[in-house]
Each structure stands twice: as structure tokens, then as C-alpha cells.
Amino acid sequence: MFKQRFWLVIFFIVQLFLTSFIATGILNQNWAYFSLGLQLLAILFFDLENALLSVILSIPLYSVLPNSKLETLSAWRFTFFALFIKFWLQNKKQGLRIKFAPWDKYLGWFAFAVLISVIFSDTGFVLGFKKLAFGINIYLLYLVVLNVLKEREKALLAIKTMLWSLSSIIVFGFVQLVIFSFSNVYYFWQYWATYIARVFYGESLANSAVYSNSWFNFSDSGQSLRMFSTLPDSHAFAVICIFALGAIVSLFVLEREEKSTLTKISLWIMMLLSVLGIIFSGTRGVWVGIVAPVVVLGYFYFKHYGRKLLKPISLPILIFFICLAFSPLIQKGISSFGQSASTSFLQRAGSIYDLSESSNAGRLQIWKYTLIKIILPNPVAGVGYGNFGSVLSASLEEDFNLPKQYITAHSLYLDIFSEVGILGLLAVLAFLKALFLNLYSFFKKHYLFSEDPLVVFVVASGISFVWLFTYSLVDGTVMNDRVLMYFFITLGISGSIFKQYIDKNNA
Predict the structure, then answer these.
(1) Burial, 31: exposed, middle or buried (Cβ in 10 Å; 0-12, 13-18, 19+)?
(2) From CA 210, how far away is CA 204, in angstroms rounded?
(3) Minimal CA–CA distance to 199: which of 25, 1, 396?
(4) What are the angstrom distances between the C-alpha of 87 and each of 95, 140, 143, 221, 226?
(5) 294-306, pLDDT tens digit by residue?
(6) Sorting pLDDT into bands at 50, 70 and 90, what band is 361?
(7) Full-model pTM
(8) How far is residue 32's CA from residue 2's CA, in Å, rounded to a whole number?
(9) Which of 407, 346, 361, 340 is nearest to 185 (CA)?
(10) Cys staple from 106: which of 184, 244, 430, 486, with CB 3.0 to 4.6 Å?
């Protein structure tokens, strides 16, 4: 086991350098196939647990495989499938059945609604099946996480590994900020779109990012970077930071037992970087969405439910409000060592209620169009999964300065309603109801276990989900590939902990 952990670290370092060299143009993009080969070898030769950890570590590093047919074909599609095959063969050999969580049946309902929408779509079924295959591919990773982490130590190691994976994205966001501060804005923009974005997300997104993206704030005083790291936009980066906070607070509780000063300092640093990442992303929907976890935590405090357990979970939220209040000073400090300058993040937060602001006006425009032009004429089965962009008018493409395939309804729920119809929306709402009822039930049964990092992780993940799905009212970022992966990993770890506590209570 120790040797496998050693080789797991070596594997991650090699993959990190390979991806860095490919992304910066030092190595030809065809080297992505060599990187994929290393990942497949790791899955083959590691035991199942370490194979899973290698996949989680690699999530920030997966790049597009150059080919003439599918320009967005990413390496993760092959590794997730290979990992699931290894898991399925091992289960079959041991005579074990695949376990599901209580909320999984509603995802099955959603898949059925998707098939209905695709069959009755007037705009074709190819995009629908592609998008459905995308979701199922990531769901396979979730099933492995849910079923492999059967013991306490395995769950804790998975949480630590996920945090390493998330932290690499967050830390690189700050490296990106430093690079930007000493670069010409235009050259930084064009280089990132031409090289980095193309390697991770393909030619089409790179070409559109050359002239339109959400990477910057512009004002009369200059430009500032909206932190996004290796992700396609700043909104996905903000959600990545939210997932990191859930893992951090649970490991804080673990370190009370292990008493490692270095680890505690590292966790404090990552908590601060994650909170600052949410602020530097400039994603106002996430900032507003924090109201929901504040209300939930306030309710539990008022009811005297698990106050000791909720204290570490409330800490990142408190730090967020402190940092946002001091954002003018933070912005000034950043501007002092580079050419970056703009209005403060606090002033940006104040623009949330300005309906004439371009971003807000654009959302209102697309919401109105989605409701009147798409949902009302197709309320039952929608226009077909993945076909939202296909039915948009050319005028919207001009208004948003984006190719139609990158325009969304700017709301997860409107996206689903418009593409999958009322059946799909009801399935998603049933999934969320089952998820949150199970989380609430777990919390009520175990809130006295405030020193158990696994209990803290489940509750903190629940708060993260409340935050994410409140934010999803105004954006569909959860469908970004990396965001969806970390969501399902977090969900899978939480589900495995559910199972462990059910088995413990029944023993």
C-alpha cells in the first residue's frame, strides 16, 4: 500500500508537468495521448482505491485529445469508463452488487425524461445523446466513489485527495493573478485563449474566447482579472472554491486529533485562498447565493441544533463577509504590484440590484426569451436535451457576442425546463428534495458528533449544495464538466458515509 501511495504522488507530479508543458506549447498537444496512457496504466496496475484516487487527482489536468472528429473529446471520458470497468469486474468477481443512494432513482427519472425529450425533439437527437452520454460518463465515477469508500479511513483519504485536486486549481488561479498583474491585458487574453483554453476545452471555445469571455472586469480606471484558473469561466472557479471549503472544515476537525501544526497552517491558508477565490471570481450570483446557507445555519442555531458542529462550517462564511467588506483595500493591494486596476469588489457587489447593468440586463433578456419563445410552446418535453442553442434566434447570438452553442438560459432550472420539459424539471426537483431530506435526517441524528470529521463533511457538503443550487437559480454552471465531477465526488463521498453510519447503527 505504501509503495502504491508513493507511485501515486510520482504519477501526479509527472502528469502535472506533462499538462503544463502541453498547455504552454512546449510539448505538442499529441502528448495528451501519452498522458492518457499513463492514467490508464495507473488504473490498470493500482488497486481499485488508489486507481480512484489517481483519477480524482487528475481532474484539473485532463486535456482535450486532438482528433479530426470530436474536437472536445477529453481524456477523462476514457479514464472514468476504464475505472468503472475495473470496479465492475472486481465486484462481479467478488459476487457483489452495485449499491445506490436514496436519491439516485430520481436521476434515473431525469435520464428517462431526457430520452423522451430527445425522441420527440424537432431539432435532432445527436446533441441530446452526446449531452446524455457526457452526464452518464461522470455518473460512472460517482458510482465508483459511492461503492469503494466502505471504511472510515478510505473516506478520509478520499476527502484529502479531493482537497489536493481542488487546491491545485485554486492555487493556480492565484498564479494566474500574479502573471496577469505583470502582463499586458490584451496579450494575456489572447495567449490564454489561443493556448491554454484550446488545450483544456478545444478549438471552438478557444476561438470564441479570443473575442468574448467572462475573464475580466472593465471600468474607467482599468481592468482587473476575474479569477478563473484553468476553467472556461470565473463562475465555475467560484463553485470549485465552495467545494474546497467543505473539505477544509472537515479536515480541520480531523486535525484536532492528529495535532499537526503544519497541516493546520496549510488548511488555514487554503481556507483563506478559497474565500478570496470566491471574491476574486467576481461571480455575484455566488455572492448572493450565500444568503441561503446563512439562513439555514441561522435556523439551526435558533433551534439549538448542533451549534458546536456548525461553528467550523460557519467560519468560511464569516471570513467571506470580512474579506468582502475589506475588498477595496484588497483591490488596492493587488493593484499596487501590477497594472491591474478597477472598481472594488464591494462596488461590484452593489451592482447586483442595478437592472440596467449589462450582465443583469442580459439575464433578464434571456430569461424572458426562454419562457416566452421556448418553454411556453414546448412545456411537456422541451425542445430536446442539448438543443437550447439550436433554437435561439440570430439576434440573441449578436446581442451576447457568442456562438449559439455557448449561450444558456442562465438558470439551471430554466435550462432543464426548456430542453427536457416539465418532466425533467420535476425529476430534478424530486432529486433535490430527496437529497436535502436525507441530509437533514442525517444531521438530526448525528449533530452531536461534532468531533467526527466524516459527520462534519456530510453537513458541510449539505451547506455547499444549498449554496450551489441557490446560485443555480441564476446560472447553469453546475453543468460545467469539472464542476459536475466534483459535485458527484462530494455526493458520492457523502453517500458512502451515509452507508457507513447505517451499517454501524444496524450492527
Answers:
(1) middle
(2) 10
(3) 25
(4) 12, 10, 9, 55, 40
(5) 999 999 988 878 8
(6) confident
(7) 0.93
(8) 28
(9) 340
(10) 430
